[in-house]
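Worked example (supplementary).
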Amino acid sequence: MPAILVENLTRIYETTTGVIRRKKKEITALDEIDLTVEAGELFGLLGPNGAGKTTLTKILATILLPTSGTVRVLGMDAVAQEKELRHRLGILFGGERGLYWRLTGRQNIQYFADLYRVPPAEVKSRVPELLELVGLSDRADERVEGYSRGMKQRLHVARCLIHDPDVLLLDEPTLGLDPVAAREIRGIIRGLNDQGKTVFLTSHYMFEIDALCERVAVLNKGKILMVDTPSALKDLVADLEVVEIECLGAPANVLEDLRQHPRLQDMRVETREHKQILHLQAPAGSELVQEFLQILKEVRVEKVITRQPTLEDAYVRLVGEEALHI
Amino acid sequence: MTHLQSLAASIRVIQNSYKMQMAENVTRNTFQFTLALQPVLFTLLSVGIYRFAGKPDLSLYGIIGSGLIGMWNANLWTSGFIVQGERWSGTLELLLATPSSLMVVLFGKSLSNASASLGAIFITFLTGALVFRVPLAIEDPLGFFVGLILTLLALTTLGLVLGTLFVLTRAAGNMTQVLNYPIFILSGLTFPITTLPLWTRPLSWALAPSWGSQALGQAAGLSDEALMPAFLWLIVLALIYFLIGLVAYRRIERIARAKGGLQEF
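After joint prediction of all chains, the assembly is encoded as:
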């Protein structure tokens, strides 16, 4: 039995505009999607902003109803058997919200233990264990408002594990964390999966999905574009190489000239502080670096690298321009 | 989980929601103001007006009314802000995602607010005694105590109804403010409801603070009427509010799941 089974799932939101003449507008967040996550799997979900990732996570978490379709988690109907199912789901939404800031870390976890109906005897042993797991034992009796972002996120992890759930739904668990804190969270996620927990992970970071997940789904405009292993996704761009050019102040017309290069497959411009990093996808072995630099001859180029395509490049190719808005 | 275990778990949720709410409230300036300073101001205004108008015999009425205003304020504000606060902190969705009923959580939190609001009565009596030399003589202390407990229960269940309805709206804070004064007036907390038009009477009867004010006033010796009818009304209203809360919650949880957007504020 799969841990998560989604069939023909559609979710439409209704919004209204105007004050006197109110007009209804429908937004399709999920459009007839199918998805299966096996028990014990670490499954990743990628997609740009507004793709429907959080909507799907909330439906799996039983806090949002689908418009149509079937959602079964651990064999239970997420619409009708939500009370039973909630005992076995651990939910984490990224960011700093979702905690009682005026209370201590320990009080936060203890409260959720009661809400998840964990027997008091178990709470006594589990709270210190989890605080130890997430490295908050020393600060557990301080108010959450004094915690750093990384500490809050680690507390979120402890909170969502208090009832020892079988399935973890993690929506952007490393959002906004510094690299060290994010690495710690990734380590915890991997450890939990090693213990046999099924993990459904949406992430902002491609390398995170690549490093952690056995399979990945790409969601765009409410539709699943592909479900496969990260390496299979990378195979989509196996015939390409990526030229990365770090430059300063490349004007729009020059970038447009580059974009018009007949052998260029795709181009993405990333702005990092005052620098532009151009990611140019070209056929493998085409040796186009000199031609690209010729177009950029009036621009100050600081660094040029030719590298193998990554999961991010494959994702860009699959989703297109919107991929930049993850 | 057996029914008994489930009941024990629900009681634990109520207990801990009560404690959590109390722990959060004591750190909130708004709550401290509503509970401690506002009853003083209302007592000064209310009793001061009666004295200035040459009706010092209504001083005790003014004190009880101010106390109930304090209780109501602490209750309404915090009940409105329980849900709004959960929404702001992003915990409302997480509460909904647990196996515990959100209504049980709200009951524990409303009870916490209501019991803390008892302090308002104490403060108003103290202000009356210290500033206006109103004697702290309660004719029927037991009746007064029972009236206070029943008022507390009715306010808790009313807070529960409001808190439940507030789950659906992002304007809970604004609605709280809009509801404040009409309820003071309709409940006869600022001046007797006999001065209001007759058609407002059913509205007054439907509000627990009206009967709370009547019960406490009678127990304090403001009138010779029997206490029991007011007590019965408070019990009946508490039950009605509770049933309304229960029915509303079942629908509201479904609506909240259908609409989504509990994290928005």
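Two points are worth noting when inspecting this output. The first helix of chain A runs from residue 53 to 60. The longest strand of chain A covers residues 23-37.
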